[in-house]
Amino acid sequence: MDKIIECVPNFSEGRRPEVVEAIVDEIRQTPGAILLDYPSDADHNRTVVTFVGGPEAVAEAAFRACKKASELINMEEHRGAHPRMGATDVIPFIPIAGTDMKECADIAHRVAKRIAEELGIPTYLYEQAAQRPDRVNLADVRRGEYEGLRELISTPERQPDYGPARMHPTAGATAVGARMPLVAYNINLGTSDMSIGKKIAKAVRGSSGGLVFVKAMAVELKERQQVQISMNLVNYIDTPIHRAFELVKLEAERYGVPVVGSEIVGLVPMNALIGVARHYLRLEEFKSNQVLETRIR
Questions:
Q1: pLDDT digits (tens, 9 = 90+) for 107-126
Q2: Which residues, at least 6 apart from 254, have a Cβ–Cβ distance to it below 8 Å?
Q3: For 129, which of 24, 125, 195, 224 could close a Cys bridge (C-beta 3.0–4.6 Å)?
Q4: Active-site residue set
């Protein structure tokens, strides 16, 4: 495979395994697409799928999965802790090998246009595929979520890049973009107090003065009676995992709240974990080719 592109679509379903399987089967059955991972979260009511392939394969697989999601997920009935605006909430394309961001942005445009024209789902372009500066940040595109966008989609500032200026009756709207690899990293706190979680998230996220390359929000984990700081580390080199962890831990200590665990959602670049090992183990002169599996490959 001369070109490798990663695609990480997020679907607004994390509680019905049969629906998730039907969606990922569309990816499995697309020639040239290789399914890597698809963890679901019941509290978020969301599934994050990761697959790779060449440009045409990832574009086709993303469209097929979006189509199946539009048939099986009704956003009028959807409830979950994670922000969302559609059955297929986001579809990012990520350059891995033999390609670049421009090609991924071109694929994003093609897929967004096809979703709008063939499925009648309004689509927005974000990150490196954005056509407007106010749509680079996914949070701005998704502001108000499904319910809010349903009321505002016909206004000039919220009209989609492709498709009708109205929500699909069941599938909502979809954001399609191009970006670099990110780390989806969550930290669980030993408290059920959402007001504390919101203060910590505000202190951590870049948009409110925290770490520049961190997007963060507080999420209620009802079954566990915990609050989670859910983060996207959009540049894990300049803002590594351990830095985000330490800042959340430091802020939590202000309120007498312990960190009880953390999780990585989906796949993570090996160098991001090596960075954690270097920091906490005080490794000197450690190189990625010292990892056994890397040397074997």
A1: 999 999 999 999 999 999 99
A2: none
A3: 125
A4: 82
